[in-house]
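Subgroup meeting minutes
Present: P.N., E.W., G.H.
Scribe: E.W.

1. P.N. recapped why we're keeping a running log of single-chain structure predictions: easier to compare across weeks, and new members can see raw inputs and outputs side by side.
2. G.H. added today's entry (180 aa).
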Amino acid sequence: MEFRYKAVEKFGPYDEEAWANYTEWSKLFHLEEVISIDPLLCPSVTDFDYEKDVDYIVWEDDGPDGYNSLQYLKEKIAEANPTDYRVLAMVKEPVDECEKIQLPNFNFVGYDLVATQGYISALTNCGGFDETFLPADLNKYGLIETYQKAYTIKDELLKNNPNQEHAECYVWAIWSMNST
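Output recorded in log:
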């Protein structure tokens, strides 16, 4: 498995008005916080410096997608000096049950379904796909708890919504660093 690392802004009830507006719109009233790689909900706290970071950036079809070194990311965080963020470890399209994998200093928080184009979370930033999953299917972070359920929802999402641009997704396993 190839781990990637990213530092993202936290998004939760402490964001008061934005959170109230979000939960009203999303109907995800049970969430304690959104943990996602969706850049609209949880923007990155570091910028990519393509020349300086070249050996540490993990590239995807449409651009950079995290770092291959946790230590390097920590250096980038120190430069950026953010105030309220999470450090995430991520695996794209895992082939194993990641909820059983323990990473030192990280807790597994769940699986996100992220659109193949644009990195939008189909779980927390598309207004719902009630024919495929319900708010109760998501944990307190807006993620899916198990590998099997994540891939079942991924398959059903595209089958039930073949013409919806955010229905074609990658499964991302996400761990959150214990403290930042």
